[in-house]
Amino acid sequence: MSTPFASQELGSFLRAHRELLKPEDVGLVATARRRTPGLRREEVASLSGVGLAWYTWLEQGRVAASRQVLEAVARALRLDGTGVRHAMRLAGYHEPAGPAEEGPTGKLARAVQPVLDSWPTSPAVLLDRCFDLLGWNAPWSALWGAPEAVPADRRNLMWLMAADQRLRGVLHDWEPLAMNVFQHFRAQAGTALGAPRTSEVYRRLDQDAPELRHWWGCHSVAELTARTVTVEPAGLGPVRLSLSSFHPVDDPSALVLLFTPVGAEDRERMTALTERPLRAVPATTGEDGTQRAAG
Prior knowledge:
The protein is of the alpha+beta class. It is built from 13 helices and seven strands. The protein has helices spanning 4-20, 41-48, 52-59, 67-76, 81-90, 107-117, 138-144, 157-163, 165-170, 174-189, 196-208, 213-217, 264-275; strands at residues 124-127, 133-136, 227-231, 239-246, 255-261, 283-285, 291-293. Strand 1 and strand 2 (133-136) form a beta hairpin.
């Protein structure tokens, strides 16, 4: 079953998509007497085959929906596959939390670490369902900086993408990938959106990257798509890396990200980078008195 927070998130998610639709998008005749954007609640209720009062309560987080009814609402709102999966997870129809919750020294991290280490020139990281870093390999540390240098409360991929100046300085055109990371987290997190750890990460983001607050306040979702990114570590020149991701079989809620060098020159540069002595990153003290990597 979904939590009260997840029910409210589901309602907000449905309302946001309802407001994005135009009457003509669903075969209705547009009229000039619309005071609010998008479809009316009664139109979505009619298209879904449910009562207006019940649909209103669904958007308000006051009722639970069966899988079949939620599928009907999703069709009425023209949700894509990612949106449907996100709605289902918020409603409680998602895989249970797995052993990733055991933490960085847990069973999953120990099992996956040899896999990460088997890629000597490809930065790779293991994330739990809140996108905390559970494990990483030497190329990841050489490229993005050692996660050990980041305080544990900020050792999270969303925080790194938004607030870590070293990562932003090394990664060309960082914003599309960073935004996609936030969209993918929202799409796959389900009830993890209401977890205390997620709230803590968002608080740290508010402190350290307030100019990006609209990223974690929006309701857009997307899968983390394969792409080629360009990084430029100091003194090496540009390196092209192909991003891929997969879920460990022992815990589908966890995620492995892998950045593979595209060509021979990219592999050579990643080899040279990984063989460099790892430079310690000094910490700076934030306004809240905590220390974090300077980048």
